[in-house]
Design a protein that fits this description.
The chain has 208 residues and is mostly helical. It is 63% helix and 0% strand. About 3% of the residues have low confidence. The chain has 6 helices and no strands. The protein has one domain. The longest helix has 38 residues.
Amino acid sequence: MKNSRPDDSARPREPIAGRSAVLENPFAPPQHVDQARHRPTDPADEVPRRSWLTSLGIWTLVCVLSALPSFFWGYGTIAQEKMAAMSLGIATFICLYTLGDQWSQQHHWRRQRALRLALKIGYITRMVISVVFPVGGFLDLWCGLLSVNIAVHTLPWLPPGLDLPHSADFLTVWAITMIQGCVLNVVVAAFVLLVWGLIVIVTKLRLS
């Protein structure tokens, strides 16, 4: 007589305690890697977006304080009625910095904490040097003389033998101010890169 008990192989197998009923894909990436990939960004790396008014206020302060030695140097060497041209040059840099600040806020490099710290150190140092005389005066005087020399050899509308900066017109004074600002920005950029490199090296040494 045959056994009428149903075959056990036809029954659905009960999951063993402690094991998942669904087999895992052996080719799937580890779970911790997938979680790390979708992990939210560190709040410290998020840069709060500045308003136009905030950017304008920050760069007005930076540019005005940074331009103080050059302004006093120009006041003693350029006719006083040309000071409006120097002021226009400073205002031009304020507008350019504000536009650049707004444009670059969402770029990846602005989220790097080391670079953000280096930029802050660089521009704060620049403002402190500008306020502390004679350090700021010497730096701006050297950059001013270099700017005048560059203007003599590059500005196409200048007649030969013109006594710069004493005989400069409005446009020439504005151009010299812009050239000097670019020269000073190159100096600040070199200092910022140096500080950034030191921060990166110190950070790696601390983590090693």
